[in-house]
Amino acid sequence: MKRITAVCWMIIVMVITVSLWMSGCVGEADSSTDGMEGTELLNVSYDPTREFYSRYNELFCRHWQESHGEEVHIIQSHGGSGSQARSVIEGNEADVVTLALAHDITAIEESGLIEQGWQEKFEGDSSPYTSTIVFLVRKGNEKGIKDWDDLVKEGIEVITPNPKTSGGACWNFLAAWAYWQKQDGGDEEKTQEQMGRLYKNVLVLDSGARGATNTFVENGQGDVLIAWENEAYLAMDEYPGEYEMVTPSVSILAQPSVAVVDKNVGDHGTEELAEAYLGYLYSDEAQRLAGENYYRPMNKEILEEFSGLFNLEMNLVSIGDFGGWDKAYETYFRDGGVFDQIYSGKE
Fold first, then answer.
1. Of the options 3.40.50.2000, 3.30.450.20, 3.40.190.10, 2.40.10.10, the CATH number for the domain spanning 133-253+315-344
2. Helix H or strand E segment including 326
3. Among 48, 68, 300, 312, which is most exposed with the fewest C-beta within 10 angstroms?
4. Could you tell me the mean pLDDT of each successive run of 10 residues in the chain, 347 residues long?
């Protein structure tokens, strides 16, 4: 093994004990990597990508073995996207990051670990797959939840993660904001009032999207989960006949982003491997794998192959409608921003 660091061991332990999942490329969860041949690559990702990257890592390992005649071992780390970005800034030696939103990668860039222009390195603004935000409700939808205005009704208990730590939660917030802006004719004060009513109904603010899903699905709390589309599908797969998905009238094009952590790959000597790992996400095989794991492929032709699964006619706003992530984050999610004003006043 070319490198084994204390940080990597910390990640291995975290993945085993917290998420109970590890990439198949590394081997059995209780196996030591001492003496293994090949190069090690650390992908720091966000919560809902666990299942996808479990399969993608196996796909990429085979591809790399066939094309380069070399074994590669992928270590995977998952958590709330904002928390994951901070862990990299604070010393988690990621070779690549695959996070929920571009702003989290920009934060790593600003720390000096990622070079400027990372968003132009890969197609689609370095977003190899997209998603959107939907509602997950219990089968039968007894509360009659159909759109965002149902979530502000008295007695409705909402589950959504915390935008301060979760990228998915930021997308949730902006999707709801976009709906109320349309309803309120762009009146910021009225929209903020409605968002206050929404967050007053939030029962639990988990740190990440997967934690929120577990709160709703496994712990049975809440009437509705505001969720990534892929998370909703996974929950319905795992608990057939127990849940159903509701598509709101307005949602958002969520674009998870990927980047090579330039400083770290330079130190590790993994530049070529890291770029290939992210680049292969755009291969037809990987794009179809993304669709099979309920992410919307960036490749439009392959996306059409999944038109029976995804509602491609949804009314989706984009982060561009908010002036881009830098402006959106400064306005809504910085300390003292709109989210803090709403949440501090929810009582």
1. 3.40.190.10
2. helix 325-328
3. 300
4. 40 37 39 59 96 98 96 96 96 98 97 97 97 98 97 97 95 98 93 96 94 96 97 96 98 98 98 98 98 98 97 96 96 96 76
